[in-house]
Amino acid sequence: MSSIVITGLRTYPIKSLGGFESDWVQVEKRGFQYDRRWLLVDENNVFLTQRSDTRMALYRTECSSNGLVVSNPNKERMVIPYVPEGDRRMVQIWSSHCDAVQVNATVDEWFSDFLGIRCSLVFMPDDSVRPTSPSFSKPDDMVSFADGYPVMIAGESSLEDLNGRLEVPLPMNRFRPNIIVSGSAPFEEDIWKSCKTGEVELRSTKLCGRCSVTATNQETGEVGIEPLKTLASYRLRDQSINFGAYFVPDRLGQIRVGETLATSE
User: Fold this and answer.
1) N or C: which end of the chain has fewer CB within 10 A?
2) pTM for the full model?
């Protein structure tokens, strides 16, 4: 039996913008450190995503000692402070609402000018709690501005299985996972009840239902019909097209690329 090895760790600091890879991450109760802790909202404080503007995919992010560095498609850069200074407000992500802090007016203007709409960048402070769905997790589980759960895992073999059915293969960035693994069978992550590496333990919640973001080229912003058309032919369950699985942390700590993942079914 081959070992399951972590081959990629990806963090997406601002929801729906480009993320970055790293050799190691700190796993917190909400998921990866910095993952989806920032969010763009419209004038009504409702979240914005690639579903409504695919240009959001073209922003790039990286962490620095001075703050979160964001580059827009025009190669213009903005440093986002880790400690925001704006006003508190209640924001909406899907059907949930939670407390957030505006970063500052300068950052809002920078994003608004490129996207052509009035929007604000907000941050989720440590004292803001957004619960996960009680249908698939425990009462004290929480999540950042991610869609529903803290950590998403996808196997390289799952992508290989899908690409074997496509005319044009797709990269893993279409699915925006946090943890990428090798050595597992295609879609084996579906049946894991938990997984462990080093000091970190993750508990399974549900499969990841996919949306139109997977059909958006993360390098160009162009939208096609795949992979949803093909996935729907064999990965449809309970009216959800699934790829990858969601997990919540039970034990926190650091995880690293190259570590072995022990799983239970």
Assistant:
1) N
2) 0.97
